[in-house]
Amino acid sequence: MRTPFIAGNWKMNLSDNETVEFIKDISHKFENRNNIEIAICPPFTSLKSALDIIEEEMIKNESFKIMVGAQNMYFKESGAYTGEVSPGMLKSIGIKYVIIGHSERRELFGETDESVNNKIKAAFKHKIKPILCVGESLKIREEGNAVSHTLNQIKKDLQGISKEEAGSLTIAYEPIWAIGTGKNATPQDANEMCKAIRDQIKEIYGKEISENLTIQYGGSVKPSNIKELMAMPDIDGALVGGASIKVDDFLAIINY
Ligand code: 13P
């Protein structure tokens, strides 16, 4: 049985102070949901504060539990890479997850399948669980190549990743045309792709890994559509952008 996994990708939003206020607010309103894993991925500048305030809030509210992830990292250990953050640095403050290959990084910052693959390898080496983002543009979907494009990304991004490592991978299917547009994929279309992803993972790593793989859908997830998305058999969670920086919306999504 796969544990549902809802993660918030804050993107370039919320200052350090705002992060602390957000977490305090969510902790006060938090209801016990034992059967779901939750993560937030604030900007680098707020990661340590997020971890510290969560620890404090967990003492006050026993049912409160949220993991913290980063939105990106470089794959080298250290050195002359101005502006980059290494996996070891993330690990040293207690980061559990890292988003790798988000379409915004691929489209705006020149991320390639090769760099994504290197980052996935580096994350596993440091025992940080990667959330690998894949998905097609509107043009690719309209040309009828959405499935082949997305599965190709997966094949390239996971090259050289062992079966054991793949056991702690999360894949987020995020169609680019649905990100930040208010237009989510229909639950049926999203599920069809998530099923194709699961079949691809089965082909590479076998039945057990594919059946245990957590696959998230991302793209305009909101309180009004989360329930029907989560009802689909191959969708195990969501990677939430805009709605994850609004306390009440994020809580409503967690409590779908
Ligand atoms: P939105 O939820 O704002 O569409 O963003 C989705 C996303 O990119 C999450 O990684």
Topology readout:
Elements (H helix, E strand, L loop, with lengths): L4 E5 L6 H14 L7 E5 L5 H14 L6 E4 L16 H7 L3 E4 L2 H6 L4 H13 L3 E6 L3 H5 L3 H12 L5 H4 L3 E4 L13 H19 L1 H6 L1 E5 L7 H5 L6 E4 L6 H8 L2
Parallel strand pairs: 1-2, 1-8, 2-3, 3-4, 4-5, 5-6, 6-7, 7-8
Helix pairs in contact: 1-2, 7-9
Give your account of this protein's structure:
The chain is 44% helix and 14% strand. It contains 12 helices and 8 strands. It has helices at 16-29, 47-60, 87-93, 103-108, 113-125, 138-142, 146-157, 163-166, 187-205, 207-212, 226-230, 247-254, and strands at residues 5-9, 37-41, 67-70, 97-100, 129-134, 170-173, 214-218, 237-240. The protein has an 8-stranded parallel beta barrel, surrounded by 5 helices. Strand 7 (214-218), helix 11 (226-230) and strand 8 form a beta-alpha-beta unit. Helix 1 runs parallel beside helix 2 (47-60) and helix 7 packs parallel to helix 9 (187-205). The relative contact order is 0.14. The mean pLDDT is 96. It binds 1,3-dihydroxyacetonephosphate.
